[in-house]
Amino acid sequence: MSETAPLKRLYIKTYGCQMNVYDSERMADVLAPLGYGMTDSPEGADLVVLNTCHIREKATEKVYSELGQIKRLKETKRAEGGAMTIAVAGCVAQAEGEEILRRQPAVDLVVGPQAYHQLPELIARAHRARGERLAAAFAPEEKFDALSVERRPTGVTAFLTVQEGCDKFCTFCVVPYTRGGEWSRPAETIEAEARSLAEKGVREVTLLGQNVNAYAGEGGLAGLVRRLATIPGLDRIRYTTSHPRDMDEALIAAHAEVEALMPYLHLPVQAGSDRILKAMNRAHTADSYLRLIEKIRAARPDIAISGDFIVGFPGERDADFEATLQLVREVGHASAFSFKYSRRPGTPAAAMPGQVAEEVKDERLARLNALLDEQRLAFNAAQVGRTLPVLFEKLGRHPGQIIGRSPYLQSVHVAAPDRLIGEIVPVRIESSASNSLAGALDLETV
Q1: Tell me, what DSSP letter sits at residue 444?
Q2: Of 85, 107, 139, which residue constitutes the final position of a domain?
Q3: Would 3 be classed as within a structural domain?
Q4: What is the pLDDT of residues 35-47, one digit of tens each?
Q5: Domain of 20, in residue numbers
Q6: What is the 8-class DSSP label of residue 213?
Q7: Using an 8 Å Cβ cutoff, are 311 and 341 in contact?
Q8: Cα dist. 435→321, 374, 376 in Å?
């Protein structure tokens, strides 16, 4: 009788953006044929992958700190007669590959974001103790050509990368250097992957790209959205992250006309001061951004706006920061992400004069967050009394509770049977909290 080979344990820790979440899922896919199954802890894992983000300095240092801890686990496993392979993937791998190997010799593989499809081959080479340890310079089409459209979704929602890289060269950003220039996947391969996901029970996809609305396939992002909206069973479409420069008329019209396109838009502005926006090389002004928001809301009045903000950019004065606060007041945000500026080596902003003191950044970030929190709470409270279609995704923390998402991406908690997971059900919203809603449904109608 033949024995089944023991399943090898794979632990992946993901840092940063949704695109890294997608990449981590695909890494698990390409490694599954080698017998690797996911585990939720690095202890005892046969392969540990850190899928890294290079956007913020502290995130990079966290990777090195994590590697120090994993090195100890590797040594423990070796002492017990086992072996652990450590791989660093993602944007830190792309930007600092040789430095990673120098600083942490316990690392076996360094794999950039365009090369993770080669993980099986690289792991085999590492196990044979020969061959290259660094794989970081491949075109994105090579990666996607090597990946099957067949995936193993773990729920009713999924990420789907449609575009990579960025040509905008914002002075604070490392993406053009770590992910390369803008590149779009062919629409037919995206559709094939989306159809496969829908056939496996996925009801909602989020289209991903460093600059997703720069998607340059046939018909642009608007055309892609319309194409995917025809797939049976795929009822919800979202996309992130966008740039104001690429928010065209066709995409705005899609928000008005495509029912599956959710009324939620993440459209980073970064600052409200034209002087700072120019220094950031954003190529839009505060006024042009506000006019764009007006146009989008005219097309889809109920749309929820989310944004990104950076405080303490080099040269930012009190008046510049006040302009950011004023823009926030005029837009009104359902949610937002806000950060203190941190220097990224090799970016133009890192060498700019007028670097802002940390205590000033802290004070400004606190004031900005207070305003954004106020707006988020108000937006959530405005949903109370409304009936919203909720896509239920998973069990809640309490017995008899399930959790889903509103069209505006809010978490919604409801007492209901778990048979509704995967269904879109009308829910009457009864209360709101800082980051979630609670509601009730008529069980006789479902």
Answers
A1: G
A2: 139
A3: no
A4: 788 999 999 899 9
A5: 8-139
A6: G
A7: yes
A8: 26, 12, 8
